[in-house]
Amino acid sequence: MHDANESRAALGNRALFPELRFDVYANHGSVSPLSEPVQAAVNEVLSAQAREGMGIFPAEVERRERVREQFASLIGATGEDIGLVANTSAGVLAIAHSLPWRRGDRVLVFRGEFPTNVTPWQQAARRLGLELVWMDAEDFRLDRVAAMEQFEQHLAEGIRLVAVSAVQFTTGQLMPLEEMGESCRRHGSELFVDAIQALGIVPLDVKRMGIDYLACGSHKWLMGPEGVGFVYIAPQRTDQLEPNLAAWISHEDAFEFLTGAAETLRYDRPIRRGARMLESGTFNNLGCAGLEASIGLIQSLGVTHIFEHVQAWHDGLEPALQARGFESARMTDPAGRSGILSLQPPDNRAAAEWAGELGERGISCASPAGWLRFTPHWPNPATETERVIRAVDSILHQGH
Ligand SMILES: Cc1ncc(COP(=O)(O)O)c(C=O)c1O
To answer: What is the residue range of the signal peptide feature (predicted)?
Structure first.
């Protein structure tokens, strides 16, 4: 769609973000800034709806199909296995409330996770009499072998579903999804993955990793506007899901009555099977247009190349900060790395205070749950880490 702009996208080049007010924007793990092509795509839909009203509907339905394919290609799936939803949370909720649970089913969840991937399981447990089994996500960073043994043990004792984030939002640890998926298959458990801290920066493959369900939103590493997300459901799992959240668009031939005769208004149309069953009502076309453009840019650069580019950025910053007494959470094993570089500050200032001081010096980063977190993406030049180091030195010298 935006080929001219795509050809302008280049690793380490911020030209498509002329309005960005920070000298260093290393906060994509929170919310991405919007590039010019993304803004242009959103503005096109705004103008089109201002002009045409309902007339934009057919083109926007077609766009949804293209975005569905984009999502699918990011995870090695097909468009048929993708349902469009509002955000990651909506995706977790959809699966939590559509599975045919039996009272006493056990769900393995992780302390340290972003609450999106805990709260819906807690509520499903309360409503349906499920049991939550807890592990510490941090154990997989500190001693992966021992943690996987414990994981195996839990599965051997009977776990219906494992709910894990691909990348831990605090430490940036990439969880051992392939091993987890393999273990789930052996023990007859199902694997649910929250992928919002991974997609767009970490290559994922649902088939190779044995992922049964995956949910993701738009506004972090996919660099789109907020409010578009998707759910992936593995083809072999679709038949078991119950249409507990179905609404008007969940039916087959859902749009027929909009233009059809009186008898086409029916309530007995079958509910679509699979992920599309979760598409319930009207949709965020503006967000979808922006996201189509931002994923287009990411695909033109290639997720693997973006990952390497971001690792080089981290390689420039991590040792310099360690030399100044920061403690890094980044895994030494590259298989456990992501787009996140998180550190513990060397002094008695909290991470939030550090993030505030850096913000005042033109560097945007985050401080979730006590970690100082840097999340650069494809537009960040590797050279800007020198600027971060200078700012860190000025904060250290200023003292407390
Ligand atoms: C791991 C993780 N899951 C989910 C979310 C957010 O979910 P949603 O897309 O529902 O806002 C975040 C961050 O905001 C996150 O870091």
So the answer is: none
Query: For the chain, what is the radius of gyration of the CA atoms?
Result: 22
**Class at the top of the CATH hierarchy for domain 53-297:** alpha beta
Q: What's the token pair of residue 115? A: 């609450």
Amino acid, single-letter form, for residue 359: G
Give, using CA atoms, the residue closest to atom 8 of ligand 1.
88
Q: Could you read off the pLDDT of 187-204 as tens digits, one per residue?
A: 999 999 999 999 999 999
Q: Just give the CATH number of 3-34+303-398.
A: 3.90.1150.10
Domain boundaries, the chain: 3-34+303-398, 53-297
- d(CA 351, CA 349) in angstroms, rounded, equals 7
pLDDT band at residue 400 under the 50/70/90 scheme: low
Cβ proximity of 392 and 360 under 8 Å = no
Q: Integer distance in angstroms from the first to the last C-alpha of the chain?
A: 51
| Cα(329) to centroid(ligand 1), Å | 20
Residue 308: is its pLDDT beyond 80? yes
Residues with CB under 6 A from ligand 1: 87-89, 114, 116, 165, 169, 194, 196-197, 217, 229
**Closest atom of ligand 1 relative to the 92 alpha carbon:** 10
- Is 53-297 the same fold as 3-34+303-398? no
